[in-house]
Write the structure tokens for this entry.
Amino acid sequence: MIKQKKSLGRKLKAYLPLYLMMVPGAVYLIINNYIPMAGISIAFEQFNYSKGMWGSPFIGLKNFEFLFKTKDAWIITRNTILYNVAFIVLGTVFAIAVAVLLNEIHSSRAKKLYQTTILVPFLISIVVVSYLVYAFLSSDSGFINKTLLPALGKEPISWYTSAQYWPFILILVNIWKGLGYNCIIYYATLVGIDRGYYEAAVIDGANRWQQILHITLPALKPTIITLTLMAIGKIFYSDFGLFYQVPMNSGPLLDVTNTIDTYVYRGLMSLNNISMASAAGVYQSLIGFLLVLVANFVVKKLSAENALF
Amino acid sequence: MVDRGKSFQVVANLIMVLLVLFCLVPFVLLIVSSITQENSLVRNGYSFIPEKIDFSAYKYLLVDSGSIVRGYILSAIVTVVGTVLNLTLTTLFAYPLSRRDLPGRGVLAFFLFFTMLFNGGLVPSYIMWTQMFHIKNTIAALLFPNLMMGAFYVIMMRTYFTTNIPDAVIEAARIDGAGELRILLRVVMPMSVPIIVTLALLVGLGYWNDWLNGLYYINEDRLYSIQVLLNKMLMDVQFLMSNTSAAQSLQGQDFTLPSTGIKMAVAVMGALPVLVIYPFFQKYFVKGIIIGAVKG
């Protein structure tokens, strides 16, 4: 027994340098991630800057009661989920279509060129994207109002105050930005398909469409399922920049651009309503957490090797 | 796959070319507008064909206004320092985790992993960084929150180590009397150049493109990185005028800011480094995305 203990001590000593290596990262995770996790207690307090995170008076679920009495709670939940559903469905369909097409192209130089360029939007910051959108949509100098609509004989549109267009604009921008990224992932799976299947299919007289339907898509199924479930796990989160910066934080658009993330930010900064913001943040964190667990559980059932944990 | 008519190839390529145009056309509009003369921009709006080419927006940004140059330098410093810090923390955390014999490995991996499942959100983070660490309006605000280490990249690196560095190599180094740090620096890292380059590019891109930390924690002009400047200027171009001495002296001489064109020029400058560097490292970006998505 004593001998074993001693050897455990010696063993730990031998590993000491490895543990020491992990100290900086561990400290960072504690600060950047774990303290804020404990800080969700703010949502149950009447927060006051002078009393701080741990000293403000506890008021139970009051903040949540207030939050869910507002119509904002419903709007931000609806917007966050519906946009994500649209992004998942359309993003996946387009990405697969493009990946399949890319895979059918002969010239490897052309292939590489296409692959390289469709990834460009993904690499650009969302702030630059908002300028690109502005170049098209600006009321007094935008391409659409100054060139396109006059050419069609139509009146200019005040884009940044007309909410009805924004669901389409935001979906289009999201697809534009994410297409290359999703496409590359699907394409990587396609490249891995055994050529033998296609050769056999051709011998059996299958045409191109039948090959895609019966070989390519089934081969993509595990990737589609995994990526979709992972996206569902994140359905309560939105790209803050897309919904705040691209519509230029325009008030008249709030009904269709306000998501949980933009609501939390506005509550924290501009409206100075920390209680509501923190309640909305906790609402997001908890449901987001549950969704990740469920999504991962389902992935595990379907294809264990793709599960997150 | 044998049934590949020539006409099919033509159609497929045509569709892909249209798609490429769809991805690039907004950049063309941006760049052309940035070199179009201000008067014609005001008259015709942003367009794909410049009526009159004129580089004065760039001249103003690079010569007369100090903000942009300062923002560029700040962004470059933050990107380099942040990337080095991130890779240091990431490597130091990932290597021990990749060692199958490390006692407590499972617990440590979970400690890392849990940060991907659950987070406290913006409000507690903001209050912690500003009230406990007082990073508001310091350069630390651009470096520390969220970007300095992420579980995702640690896991990517750990997976690379476990699959590409044979245990025997580490064992051999130890028998030769090398300590752990020495093994990491002299044996493991030289064998891991591809993943280090890949992660350096992704992390660097994250720092260069980051504007959220600036939005949350910075409200002093001198600490505006290029992305934060872009963000401020989209809302208000005149902002450039208010804080440069050159502009103030020019104002006296009845100077009008070529604001329509400047908006586009400044966005070009924000995107330019990424667009210039990307083609050379394309394969690393692609590889990084693929391993990240599949093995994250």
Remarks:
- Chain B touches chain A through 100 residues (CB under 8 Å).
- The radius of gyration of chain B is 24 Å.
- The CA atoms of residues 38 and 260 of chain B lie 7 Å apart.
- Chain B has one domain: 60-295.
